[in-house]
Amino acid sequence: MGQELEVVPARQGRAVRLAAGQAIQIINTHGQQVVDTWCFNAADMAEFMSMEHIHGMLETVFPVEGDALVTNQRRPILMLERDTSPGRHDTVIAACDRYRYALLGCVGHHDNCTDNLFAALADLGLRPAECPSPLNLWMNIPIAADGRITWAEPLCKPGDHVILRAAMDCIVVMSTCPQDMIPINGADCTPTEVHFRLLD
Predict the structure, then answer these.
(1) pTM score, two decimals?
(2) Over the range 86-103, which residues count as b (16 or more CB within 10 Å of their CB) and which as e?
(3) Every domain of the chain and the residues it spans
(4) What are 189-199's pLDDT values in tens digits?
């Protein structure tokens, strides 16, 4: 049975605890929002979901339904149990930060996923040693045969969702990416809220 829907407001982050065997459903409410997603071992924040290790274990940069998402200790931490979208999620791009926006020409503060990670975990009284590379749900980064990448719009539609099931007690962090200078959140470059619920 699932709990009530909760919201991750546009440009913000949320952190939730999952017990082993519990799942989280993350819903792309409006269909064009990238959600930077991290997962930490609840007993040891130094162990976290690692994109580099996922690449080696899965031998792909695009995880699909049924794939185990592993940590920097090569242990499963989440299972990608369900994905109703076209399945295009990014595992190669770092979380946006103040340096990224400065390079794009932003003057002054810009909300960013790195700050959102630290703020969301601070709400639980936690602080990671670093910002790991996230699983960028619904972020569409096509990779050409020559290795070059493109910053493209998401392929998902409103209501598409993923279900991630915990393989250990863990903490999942979500950030509705505040990127509004390139069209990774759609052609309108307008970040929006997403919804999530915990599942048994």
Answers:
(1) 0.97
(2) ebbbbbebbbbeeebbee
(3) 6-199
(4) 999 999 999 99
Distance separating alpha carbons of residues 128 and 175, to the nearest angstrom: 15
What does the buried/exposed string (b/e) look like for 122-156 if buried means 16 or more CB atoms within 10 Å of the residue's CB? Answer: eeeeeebeebbbbbbbbbbbeeeeeeeeeeebbbb
Find tokens 């960013």 and name the residue.
112
Residue 164 corresponds to which amino acid?
L
Helix (H, G, I), strand (E, B) or coil at 136: strand
- Quickly count: other Cβ atoms within 10 Å of residue 39's Cβ: 26
Residue type, 57: M
The answer on pLDDT for 74 being more than 90 is yes
Residues 6+ apart with CB under 8 A from 196: 5, 6, 7, 8, 14, 16, 24, 25, 26, 27, 174
Q: How far apart are CA 131 and CA 110, in angstroms?
A: 17
pLDDT at 1: 58
56-67: average pLDDT? 98
Write out the E strands in the chain: 6-8, 13-18, 23-28, 35-41, 44-48, 68-70, 76-83, 135-137, 160-166, 170-176, 194-199
